[in-house]
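Hi everyone,

Forwarding the result from last night's run.
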Amino acid sequence: MRATRGQSGRQLCATACFEMDDSMTSETTECNLSTSERLPLAGLLALATSGFITILTEALPAGLLPQMGSSLNVSDAMVGQLVTLYAVGSLVAAIPLTSATQGWRRRRLLLLAIGGFAVVNTVTAVSTSYILTLVARFLAGVSAGLLWALLAGYASRMVAPALQGRAIAVAMVGTPLALSFGIPLGTLLGTVVGWRYTFGIMTVLTVGLLGWVVAAVPDFPGQGQGRRLTLRHVFLMPGVRTILSVTLLFVLAHNILYTYIAPFLLQVGMGGRVDMVLLVFGLTALVGIWLIGALIDHWLRALVLASIALFVIAGCTLGFAGTSPIAIYIGAGLWGLAVDFH
């Protein structure tokens, strides 16, 4: 149950608190009981695609620093702040927006979050002002904060209780796909056709996703006034603070490793193999998604502990690998396998 790269373990806990309580309502029970024993793949993959676009929107400027800096007449370091402002927007918006919109119908809220990406990516594509682009990136982060707070709870409400773990795993598959395949391909596309066209293409994809969601994702009611929980009540629930702390540390460690994997590989003489290392990471992350779907409904605690142990082993393997390509690939594989379990 992955949280995104920079943003989002911070939202999945909010989702668990605000959305999963919602799944206990009579409306949801009726909906779950009416679902078949098969996963509604069309709807779940639409949710996964929204996660894919979210991650791609977040990280793409990091791969297009020189082009964007030259076009906006700022340094690479200043372009890097486009990623920072996105993360800040996501961080400050996630919990307040989740709390404020508990009573909203779910699909309308989902469409609003996805539509936000279409607007801000369009602004980013046409803007010639660095300040305007910063504002657009902040608002993109706000959309991301809202969307990540929806995905896991939304996926769980689309299926019967016995399939909720698998549904969440499918809905989250967009994240490893974006990290391992989407960002390198987006960077390549930006190099070939220009960064503005790349963001424009993302807008087109997002508009298509809006239609997909309308066609394939069911609507659900929000929480009634009497069933809503305050932030203080949620925070004081047994185990919530522990979950928040573990998720924060896990995602922070992953983000640091992902952000600096390229210079790390350059330092150990594998600067030309970044794409292959990330490919190994992505492929094993997909294996991790499959394992989650198969085991999470019965082995949740064991999977969490295993993911932490695997990540520690992966970090140690990479740290002590020296210049051994085999050890580096093994470490990247363990890292990919571990990162989606949490």
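Confidence is low (pLDDT under 50) at residues 1-35.

Cheers,
N.
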